[in-house]
Design brief:
Number of domains: 3
Family: In the C-terminal section; belongs to the class-I pyridoxal-phosphate-dependent aminotransferase family.
Number of helices: 16
Keywords: Aminotransferase, DNA-binding, Pyridoxal phosphate, Transcription, Transcription regulation, Transferase
Structural class: alpha/beta
CATH architecture of the largest domain: 3-Layer(aba) Sandwich
Distance between the termini: 28 Å
Strand order of the largest sheet: 4-11-10-9-8-5-6-7
GO molecular function: DNA binding; DNA-binding transcription factor activity; pyridoxal phosphate binding; transaminase activity
Pfam family, one: Aminotran_1_2
Shape: globular
Radius of gyration: 25 Å
Number of strands: 16
Protein name: Transcriptional regulator of MocR family (DNA-binding HTH domain and aminotransferase domain)
CATH class of the largest domain: Alpha Beta
């Protein structure tokens, strides 16, 4: 009964406070799904309230989907799908904010690069050059693999010519890449491993494929290898999905040693590694040495995914896969069944953009801009939120993953709704876990869409809420 204990506040009706406490116990797993709640008489005596108060508590819990009544037996806890309503509200937030109203918000949720830094003039030049050079061909369908010029230049400029362009497949961003791979190699009841926490979009795809999902905790330098190998020994694993640098959401990066060990295990236990290279170009710490899983993959076990949308411009929607030889045909067929071809004009324009040196120049420029915001956020976390949250400094990327200190009795869901009322948008941590309850104390804040004035305002709002 001790877990039901509560210190009442004078201003709020007691039945609301009791109901809120029980909801939190259910969300946190301290009261299990289907567990019988105390009888009305017992709980009223324990909390020192009258029976009618507990009657109203249980009615409220039932109306909100947190409990159900068994006639003649009592009231039982019901674990809700936290993500369902929250995800709807989260998505609707962005749909309902007009362009005019958006400027009034502090957007810590979006992670796309700020459009004002995009070099439109350079992109205009390459678009015009493509149309002058290729004419109507620039608007036609490309072959399945994608525009050959772009594939060749990806190999030349990003892989020093060491990747055969025939193994490069152009896709419409990382999300489509994960979907194509999943359709190609993951069947119903196949076993896959993901990081805990991990990218919510990938989780959704694997759930849709009805795979059995195992999670392995993220820690400094990558996943917990001992935990990882225990799962491999007991289960036939089809693939492992990972984000090698500035992982979404934690911001953690893999050490070279852990990458080598995971590749060894992939060869030993016969599974593929799906490497989602998220934001490896956005680096502020010179000590971070970039070496992808794919770069040290001698057994052809790594399916590499790279999106240009996250660091370039979301509307362009271009990325690419590097396919292992054994499953190349399966992945190509999956791409054909998905959408046939990615925009020919955008592929040709991006090809020239890379070839003319604009890409490298752009990356260097935005690294300078975003490093200032990154350091500004760290300084504010350390000074304003120092006793309220814990965080790591990832050394790159566009976001931070914050843990609400245990003494603060507020979940990331409460924080999301209260921030939203104050025109500050954050991403709740529950989206990044197979079991949403694991993420209740976490939230993510990005800084790609916010200048320093807005960052300050947003952190001040979070600070006032967490008090």
């Amino acid at each position: 009964m001790e877990k039901y204990k509560i210190c009442f506040e004078e201003e709020i009706p007691k039945y609301i406070q009791i109901a809120k406490n029980i909801k939190k116990l259910i969300d946190n797993g301290e009261v299990c799904d289907g567990e019988k709640l105390p009888s009305i008489r017992k709980l009223s005596e324990f909390l020192g309230v009258n029976n009618d108060t507990i009657v109203n508590v249980y009615k409220k819990l039932q109306s909100e989907g947190y409990a159900f009544l068994k006639m003649g037996s009592g009231t039982y806890a019901k674990k809700r799908d936290i993500n369902k309503r929250l995800l709807r509200d989260y998505s609707n937030t962005f749909k309902r904010i007009s362009k005019e109203d958006y400027d009034d918000y502090v957007d810590f949720a979006e992670e796309n690069p700020c459009a004002e830094f995009f070099p439109v003039d350079n992109f205009k030049k390459v678009i015009n050059e493509v149309l002058d050079r290729d004419g109507v061909d620039a608007l036609s369908y490309e072959e399945t693999l994608g525009y050959e010029g772009l594939r060749s230049n990806i190999s030349k400029y990003f892989w020093n010519g060491e990747i055969d362009s025939e193994r490069i497949l152009i896709v419409s961003g990382a999300q489509q890449g994960i979907d194509i791979i999943s359709k190609a190699i993951v069947n119903v009841n196949d076993n896959i491993i993901v990081e805990k926490p991990t990218y919510s979009g990938a989780l959704s795809i694997f759930k849709w494929r009805r795979a059995n999902i195992f999670e392995v905790d993220m820690e400094c330098g990558g996943i917990n290898i001992d935990e990882f190998e225990k799962i491999l020994k007991k289960n036939n694993i089809k693939c492992f999905y990972t984000m090698s640098y500035f992982q979404n959401p934690t911001g953690l990066s893999y050490s070279y040693e852990k990458k080598k060990k995971i590749i060894e295990l992939a060869n030993k236990y016969d599974f593929y590694i799906i490497e989602d290279d998220y934001l490896s170009e956005i680096r502020y710490d010179e000590r971070i040495d970039y070496t992808s899983f794919k770069a040290i993959d001698e057994g052809d076990r790594v399916i590499y995914i790279k999106s240009f949308s996250k660091i370039f411009l979301p509307g362009i929607r271009i990325g690419y896969l590097v396919m292992p030889s054994k499953i190349k045909e399966q992945i190509e067929n999956s791409k054909i069944n998905t959408d046939i071809s990615t925009s020919s004009l955008m592929q040709r324009a991006l090809d020239l953009y890379i070839k003319n040196g604009y890409w490298k120049k752009y990356i260097n420029e935005i690294n300078i801009i975003y490093e200032k915001r990154y350091n500004f956020m760290i300084n504010n976390f350390s000074s304003v939120l120092k006793d309220k949250v814990q965080f790591i400094s990832p050394g790159g990327g566009f976001s931070f993953y914050l843990k609400i200190n245990d003494l603060i009795k507020k979940s990331c869901i409460d924080l999301f709704y209260e921030c939203k009322r104050n025109k500050v948008l954050i991403t709740p941590g529950v989206f990044f876990y197979k079991d949403a309850a694991n993420g209740l104390n976490y939230f993510k804040v990005g800084f790609s869409k916010t200048n320093e004035d807005k960052i300050q305002r947003g952190i001040d709002v979070i600070n006032s809420i967490l008090k």
